[in-house]
Amino acid sequence: MRRFAEDTSVPVGRSRAEIDRLLQDWGCGQLQWSDDYKSGRFRLRFLWEHNGKGYLARFDVELPGRKDLEKHAIDGRTGNVSENKLQALMDARGKAEHRTLLLWLKACLNAVESGIVTAEMIFLPFLEGKDGQTVGEIAIPKLADLAGGSASRLLGEGK
């Protein structure tokens, strides 16, 4: 199956500008991008104002590594990895991921605006506490506990 935006030529900067504009239009007053080139990931953080409180949301996106991309850089004539193809794929990393993040944010915000779901439901896993952990990072390792009890067990409440 073809991945969304896998062949996009839209530069990362343009996608980030669109995400910035979307979040500003939605009422986010603070936004931060950071790149970890060595580890091949980027982070988006934004402050969401809701009912008089500020909530910090964080999205960490890991980019495909060299090994992940080698299978897409095979030279059809030799069957070996083409260094030129591989380098082009490495240079394009982040383009599809930024387009996908933009699409996801647009879809989520439209779903909120149409009343399909609340913003709290959408962004809950991505809300970051003062300790730097997101709700998702805390709850996901405990998810198996949900099958054996109440939802409060995910947050360490009750037994």
Question: How does this model look, in words?
Answer:
- Helix 1 runs parallel beside helix 4.
- Strand 2 and strand 3 form a beta hairpin.
- By secondary structure, the protein is an alpha+beta fold.
- The chain has a 4-stranded antiparallel beta sheet, covered by helices on one side.
- The longest helix has 19 residues.
- Helices cover 38% and strands 18% of the residues.
- The mean pLDDT is 89.
- It folds into 2 domains: 117 residues, no CATH class; 29 residues, no CATH class.
Topology order in helix (H) and strand (E) letters: HEEEHHHHEHH
Separation of the first and last Cα atoms: 43 Å
Shape: globular
State mean pLDDT (0 to 100 scale).
89
Strand order of the largest sheet: 1-2-3-4
Low-pLDDT stretches are none
Strand % is 15-25%
Helix content: 25-40%
Q: Pairing-aware structural class of the strands and helices?
A: alpha+beta
Q: How many individual β-strands?
A: 4
Domains, number: 2
Secondary structure elements and their pairing?
Elements: H1 12-25, E1 30-36, E2 41-50, E3 53-62, H2 66-70, H3 83-91, H4 95-113, H5 119-123, E4 127-128, H6 135-139, H7 143-146
Antiparallel strand pairs: 1-2, 2-3, 3-4
Helix pairs in contact: 1-4
